[in-house]
Amino acid sequence: MLIIGAKGFAKEVLEICHQNNDLTHLAFYDDINDDIKGFLYHTFPIMKTIEEAQHYFATVDEKFTIGIGNPDLRKKLAHKFSDIGGILTSTISPKADIGSYGIQIGNGANILDGAKISNDVIIGESVIVYYNSIITHDVKIGDFTEISPDVKILGRAVIGSFCQLGSGSIILPDIKIGNHVIIGAGTVVTKDIPDNCTAVGVPSKIIKQNK
User: Fold this and answer.
1) What is annotated as the active site (predicted)?
2) Which of 42, 75, 81, 122 has the highest local Cβ count within 10 Å?
């Protein structure tokens, strides 16, 4: 497995790989930070060039996942590394509690400890579900969305793609949230939210149109 990124969220993904005993040939890719080089934790090699990554996919392991949180950047990286032979792969903590029926999880999802996902839930490509979030029945989540810790998404809610749901936010049943939406931490969403905006508060109020 090649984890794209070697700081921040990449360390959360490393822990999932550790829990799953999926450390054989594990490596990281970071061509941005000059202070990260050599081996992470004196164990895992850090690649710096796209040629190294391509050689890794061809000779060691085709799997990669994204250890960076920004939704738009995650999409760019998913395409970039797929184009050189990588296979976008999900990492799911064994400490997550996932329903037994009607579950669909897209490639490249990262699901962390304590996440609770009920039945008939659809999770899109490269979605992040952080610690202790709850996703109840019949929820749909679009691609490249980030669900922060302790979020609650209640029955039949629909969350668009490229969204960021802040820590502790609550999405009430049957709510529809558009694409490229930011929900502030602690927000309670009681009405549908259109595309390209930021909403905060209890109850939620749109405060900004996102570009």
Assistant:
1) 137
2) 81
